[in-house]
Amino acid sequence: MKFELLQPRSLQEALEMKKNYGDKARVLAGGTDLLVLLKDQKLTAEAVMSLAGVRDLNFIRYEDGRGATLGALATHGGVAASPIIQQKFPDLAEACSQVGAVQIQNLGTVGGNLCNASPAADVAPPFLLMDAVLTLASTRGERRVSIHDFFQGPRRTVLQADEILKEIFVPEVPGRRGATYLKLGRRKAMEIAIVGIGVAIHLNGSDQVVSECRIAMGSVAPTPVRARRGEEILRNQEVRDELIEEVAVVAAEEASPISDVRASREYRLDMIRVLCRRAARVALARARGNKEEGL
Predict the structure, then answer these.
(1) Strand, helix or coil at 77?
(2) Whole-angstrom Cα distance, residue 117 to residue 155?
(3) What is the pTM of this model?
(4) Residues 138-159: what's their mean pLDDT?
(5) Quick one: 197 and 233 in the same domain?
(6) Is residue 221 exposed (0-12), middle (13-18) or buried (19+ Cβ within 10 Å)?
(7) What's the pLDDT band for 190 if we cut at 50, 70, 90?
(8) Which range of residues forms the domain containing residue 127?
(9) What kind and span of H or E run contains 126?
(10) ∠ at Cα 93 (91, 99), nearest 5°?
(11) Is 81 exposed, middle or buried (0-12, 13-18, 19+ CB in 10 A)?
(12) Is 281 helix (H, G, I), strand (E, B) or coil?
């Protein structure tokens, strides 16, 4: 594994290097995914550009009434520990707290997790729930891309050869929002999701009527996906157990999981139903402001 190491000290310098090297240079944020792929020869690189010196990309900013902006180098540990993220976007905090173990969370970044474009990326479902907007930068300028348009397939995104992910914006949602992210792995740490489910429920009046429902799934298709038919079942409806069960069934029907070394297709489909049911109940309890969140 031999490559040229590039060490820019500013975003502008990094963009110049990416322009010159293009696809020949892999971008290294935390390195928790890239270095493993290079070592296992699943990726090749003539050059690796470390962003460790571009400190301006490691931040979490919140603007009341507008939302939060996360620098691409914000670490999972930093996001999970952020009081404002915990309060306003608990599903994102939960997702970041379940990435690998503490060591991985202290190195790995939200931007790297997205750009790696794994179908099992833990931060992808919460960002899908929240209609996150990604800012992609190059020497040509910046462009903004919806998270829904970012993933093109396993390890493929819309990032062009000369672009770097700069930041992620998460809009604040008015009204009462409850959300959660639940992950199933073969053990409790250092595990890739067998299934990851995020559910957000919005209440704008009665505790019984759902004004908005969103469901996002990871490790169940070539890219992280929304279960839009399942969402429609609860939208503008009074919550009943049978409706939640129907949502879980339909969400599984919208998935297209595979069988691999971690789980069979059939097991994943069963677990989508189980996790979706549990996540919907937790999200509803949080939207109602309940302190006790029974699964």
Answers:
(1) helix
(2) 4
(3) 0.93
(4) 97
(5) yes
(6) middle
(7) low
(8) 55-171
(9) helix 124-129
(10) 105
(11) middle
(12) helix
